[in-house]
Amino acid sequence: MSDPWFVDAFRTGYLGVYAHRDDAAAGAEAAFAATLLGDVARVLDAGCGAWRHARALAARGFIVTGLDLSLDLLREAATLGGGPRYVRGDLRALPFGDGAFGGVLSFFTSFGYFDDAGNARQLAALRRVTRRRGRLVLDFLNAALVRAALVPRSERESAGHTIIEERAIRAGRVEKDVTVIAPGGARRAWRESVRLYSREDLGRLLGTAGYDVLAVHGDLCGGPFEASSSARCVLVGEAA
User: Fold this and answer.
1) What's 63's DSSP letter?
2) Is there a single domain that holds both residue 118 and residue 188?
3) Cα-flanking dihedrals φ and ψ of residue 139, to 5°?
4) Do residue 167 and residue 152 come from a single domain?
5) Taking 70 as the threshold, does the pLDDT of residue 17 lie above it?
6) 106 and 30 within one domain
7) CA 133 to CA 31: how far, in whole Å?
8) CB–CB of 85/66 below 8 Å?
9) Are 111 and 138 in contact (CB under 8 A)?
């Protein structure tokens, strides 16, 4: 049996596809997220991926735990030393105690990977480890803009590699087939697949999980959310 897409995708080579997402951007995004968290000490970066935000938050004085399922990415993070603590785990079954964190962050579409039941389990797990009145910052796709402006195919160069991305919406999910061609011709390919939830859907899901939605932003700089034009849909929830 083949691995789920979210195991296959986040291996060595994934970081090269998103190399344009740099530390400077992560620093600015973490700075805004810090204003949303309030007066908390311990925060969880749930699905820390390339660890950019985890390190930026640690640099701001937070006690940060970065969680990811990918051993490849966590090994890369470990080479940097210092700063956050990194833990391997499944977003649907977090290996932490109840109320362990004052703030929980989900950056760069680290939600929507599973079916509806699995996505609900993820939010329930995040709520369980969020202390009462703690905050969740959920950075997600703007589904309306994705549907209206999807680019079916793009091709670009990065560090001598050719990156081809083909996109489609199928059965309520946005799917991206990624092919990376190395200078010598070697190829690696994978599919990314995320359930498309509208802003209203996300609000209902957070409410069911036990969060009150306090605010919705259109990016991680505090811009207003506009369904027709916002790049992102960033919800701020408070644990009831």
Assistant:
1) E
2) no
3) -100, 110
4) yes
5) no
6) yes
7) 20
8) yes
9) yes
pLDDT of residue 1: 56
What's 198's DSSP letter? -
Q: In what order do the strands lie in the sheet with 153-158?
A: 153-158, 161-170, 173-181, 187-195
Per the structure, how many domains does the chain have?
2
- One-letter amino acid at 195 equals R
Domain of residue 158 covers 145-193
pLDDT at residue 211 is higher than 60: yes
Q: Rounded distance, CA 89 to CA 106, Å?
A: 14
C-alpha dist (Å) from residue 142 to 127, 134, 174: 22, 24, 11
Asked if 131 and 239 count as a contact pair (C-beta separation under 8 A), the reply is yes
pTM of this structure: 0.94
What sign results for the dihedral spanned by CA atoms 111, 113, 115, 118? negative
Give 38-72 pLDDT, tens digit per residue: 899 999 999 998 788 999 999 999 999 999 999 99
Looking at the structure, do residues 86 and 173 belong to the same domain, yes or no? no
Cα–Cα distance between 142 and 30 in angstroms, integer?
20
Distance CA 3, CA 23 (A): 30
The pair of structure tokens assigned to 3 is 């691995």
What would the pLDDT profile of 145-186 be if each residue is shown by its tens digit? 999 999 999 999 988 889 999 999 999 999 999 999 989 999
* Residue 20 confidence (pLDDT) above 70: no
Asked whether residue 115 falls in the same domain as residue 219, the answer is yes
Q: What are phi and psi of 148, to 5 degrees?
A: -80, -25
61 closest CA partner among 40, 80, 79, 81: 40
